[in-house]
Amino acid sequence: MNTSPAFVFARMPELHFGAGQLAQLPSLLAHSAQQRQRILLITGSASFVGSAHYEKLTLALTAAGIDYFQQAVAGEPSPELVDQTAERYRAEAIDWVVAIGGGSAMDAGKAISAMLPQQGSVTAYLEGMETAKHDGRKTPFVAVPTSSGTGSEATKNAVLSRIGASGFKASLRHDNFIPDVALIDPELMLSCPQGVTAACGLDALTQLIEAYVSSKASPLTDALALSGLQHFSAGFDRALADGDRDIDARGELAYAAFLSGVTLANAGLGVVHGFAGPLGAYFPIPHGVACGTLLGEATRATIDALFAAPEQNRLALEKYARVGALLAGQTSGALRDDCAQLVATLAALIERVAMPRLSRYGITRDDLPKILDKANNKNSPVMLSREQMAAILEARL
Predict the structure, then answer these.
(1) 8 A C-beta contact, residue 10 and residue 80
(2) By residue range, what is the domain housing residue 177?
(3) Could you tell me if 123 and 255 lie in one domain?
(4) Fewer CB within 10 Å, N or C, the chain?
């Protein structure tokens, strides 16, 4: 490996991390007593809004002289939701957009902040569909995650979906769309249900592994990915077992998820996320479930393909072996054995959390060709054939 490779690293948001950080939000937003701030709160549909955290926050905003509007997001955000919300609040002179919720709220808030200063539909700017170039102007944006998965609080893209036979998942993307502030408070994650915790955690794990072995990885993303993997390993099982009380475990996962966003933003992702796009476009499968259910088989197929030319692919295999040793908490010292240990560890983990199979969402063997037509593995350490990619899907039907 070149010890001094050339690479670029994107800027990150101003980060406020730790239990109780939500209480700092009003002071972060209120620049001066002379200027009364107006903010748009983008939230999930029920969980946060129905909590004591929401009541405390809104009282604190009012006490700080901050006017607020609130818009709920149910499910993954659509272009229509973004267009309607931006149109509704464009005349309100919004100073900040604040998204508090899971990945869907993060993506919706990011896209709405990008469209408030614009006219027309967000679809004009969606990657792969664009008819215009976004100029990067946005309303300042604060991301406050309540789950630990997508890492959207650290990235420059907002994923929007239209689900159905002619559906799509596409990104609104610009360097300026990286959140201005990421406020990560593990207290907000204590009420996250076990199933959501599992799916979101596996999404973060997938992102960390894919960024670590990516063809675009750098020494800096490698270091951050390994740190994220260590924190994931320290927190995941504990958060599943006692997630409503173990705030330290929630903090471990929140930190891992943030680093997964940082690393994917700088190193890209691989075949699992190449599948997740079309799966989420055509079927109502949550993004975290799509990633979690495919991670084991995709890792197995990739490692098998790398071992077809082990010397040529030694760096990637060494990385997979290192992840296998880290997640299992032990190493055999042998490359092939530690890679096999990774595959076995992931399979056991996915089985333990009962990650749903694709068929639960109506996906059949007949649907595989159209999924494969849209799938990709552009940053994987080895390019898988269509047949190899089909086998991954078939194994999880």
Answers:
(1) no
(2) 14-189
(3) no
(4) N
- Mean pLDDT value across residues 132-150: 95
Is the whole-model pTM more than 0.90? yes
Provide the pLDDT for residue 128: 87
The CATH number of the domain holding residue 41 is 3.40.50.1970
Query: Which of 161-165, 174-178, 359-363 is predicted least confidently?
Result: 161-165
Structure confidence by residue, pLDDT tens digits, 144-162: 999 999 999 999 999 999 8
Q: What is the pLDDT of residue 1?
A: 44
Residue 181 identity: V
Strands 67-73 and 14-17: unpaired
Share of the chain above pLDDT 90, in %: 89
pLDDT tens figures, 287-302 = 999 999 999 999 999 9
Indicate the length of the chain as a whole number. 397
Paired with 144 in beta bridges are: 100
Mean pLDDT of 32-60: 85
205 and 134 inside one domain: no
State both tokens at 380: 């994987």
Question: Do residues 131 and 154 both lie within one domain?
Answer: yes
Mean pLDDT score, 310-316 = 97
